[in-house]
Amino acid sequence: MENLTRNNDLLIEDESKLNAKIQRRSFLRYAGVGAAGVGLLAVASCKKHTDDPMVSATIDVGGGDIGVLNYAYALEQLEAAFYIKVVASPYSGMSASELSAFTDIRDHEVLHREFLKAALGAAAIPALSVNFSSIDFTSKASVLAAAKGFEDTGVSAYNGVAYVMQNPAYLTLAGKIVSVEARHAAFIRDMISYGSFADSTVVDTTNALDLSRMPSQVLPIVAVYLNTSISANQLP
Amino acid sequence: MNIFSIIEELEKIDPELNERFSPRRAAIKNLSNYGSKIALAALPFALGSLFTKAYGQTAVGDVTGTLNFALKLEYLESAFYNTALATPGLIPTADLAAFQLIAAHENAHVKFLQNVLGTSAVAQTTQGTNGTYDFTAGGSLPNYFASKDYATFLIVANAFEDTGVRAYKGQAPNIIGNKVVLTAALSIHSVEARHASHVRTIRRGTTATPKSWITGANDTGFAGIAANYAGEDNTMQGGVDLTTLINPVTGAKFTSSVITEAFDEPLTFAQVLPLVSPFGVK
After folding, report:
1. Selected residue of A207, A211, A212, A235 to mutate for chain B interface (largest B Cβ count, 10 A)
2. What is the C-alpha to C-alpha distance for residues B8 and A130, in angstroms, rounded to an integer?
3. What is the rounded distance in angstroms from the CA atom of residue B229 to the CA atom of residue B112?
4. What structural domains does chain B harbor?
5. CB-based contact (8 Å) between A84 and chain B?
6. What are the percentages of helix, strand and coil residues in chain A, rounded to 5?
């Protein structure tokens, strides 16, 4: 993947691309010598004797365009993991057409994740550890409610953070993904309640604008589904 | 476009937009407070600098042109759905509420863009023939309103929504970095995608079988709108050939169906205009 990235000159020459990596490196270095001054990054204390100290450390997505792409990568990781589980352990009574649609959505989200990972190359944040203990995967209602939350939140997240991006190519990529998330959101909503694809809980009645949320609003929403602690201190 | 009128227009819609505006707006609003500290001759420059900082780096002319392009498309969609709702017997009862909602959204988008553009807004009467569209696109489509041909109406709705998504997406780079305008445009963009998804879901219930996402290029089952989907079958993203990526879940490469469904493609103004000009968009 790194070769692919390099060959295609993607994300090269971007000063901010190393932000996330440098911060992790800093954390690892400081953690290694047991320094006390790493509180900002090591919000959650590092477990002793763990194989991967990053599991319990806060991962900051970084700033600038790369920060936004890593933020998107984090959200896509979460969505992909969710739908992988939905398809692997279908709720009771899942119809063939529902399974087919969830398989489609799973593959879209996995591709978004894999694409962002490939595009970010060395600048990508690590794989996140997810926690879906609040979701009952045997229950259609529970799965659909969670799916609706992921999709609507994803749409609002891309809408809200896009203005931070300065590279037109990256902005366009985010645009290519967010409309697919909106298609998913409408589809899931119609499954829950036919006709709720764009109801007033997501689209305001005055201007008919979809929700937009800043990373600082999105991260607390998704935190419940993550063991890994994520921050976006360099994004709004 | 007068910079003061832009700020005024943006402020008019501030209550509806809540926190979507930059807090730095206050700096502009209170500019008069700084009057004693800024020489009169320096004012235009100071204003321009403030505007750039607060609202991004795009030239004002680009923003106006982009928003007027969006407004023209919303005029078309709005008239299309309003005509449909005014045609008894066209839309089945089961789908009436959905099209009332979609029409309300398009009408709200028109009003929103008119408010933002203020006096720079293109008048609806400049479109079509004195504001009246030809929904047969110069005879290339049957008169589905007159014949109450719901299937054809759905195909056109399908195409309008998907094309609207592509058009907004294509305009995003023109308003890059502009917190207010870009965020608003993307917030319309995703609403159009929700519409597209639902119209496709409706069509799946009839004889057609499109998914709620676009598979390959023209997956609508109607060859006449193939141009609206040109390029949707793209499999290269950001310099990455997605056909080479392995799906870790299946262990196989991602299929071209998955790849093309997972990414919607943009269209430029020059690409969209020929698609909508037969209806009367100018």
Report:
1. A207
2. 46
3. 28
4. 3-55 (no CATH), 60-232+265-279 (1.20.1260)
5. yes
6. 60, 5, 35
Hey, is A210 helix, strand or coil? strand
Report yes or no: B265 and B231 within 8 Å, Cβ to Cβ: yes
B238: alpha, beta or left? (left if phi > 0; alpha if psi -120 to 50): left
ipTM entry: 0.82
Q: Say how far apart CA B164 and CA B157 lie, in whole Å.
A: 10
pLDDT, position B207: 74
pLDDT per 10-residue tile (average), chain B, 282 residues:
45 43 37 32 33 41 88 98 98 98 98 96 98 97 97 97 98 94 97 98 88 97 95 96 97 98 97 97 96
Q: Which two tokens stand for residue B272?
A: 């969209």
Closest to B57 measured CA to CA, from B229, B176, B235: B176
Tell me the C-alpha distance between A176 and B170, whole Å. 10
Chain B closest-CA separation from residue A229 CA (Å): 24
For chain A, list the domains and their CATH numbers. Answer: 2-12+64-225 (1.20.1260.10)
CB A65 within 8 A of CB A167: yes
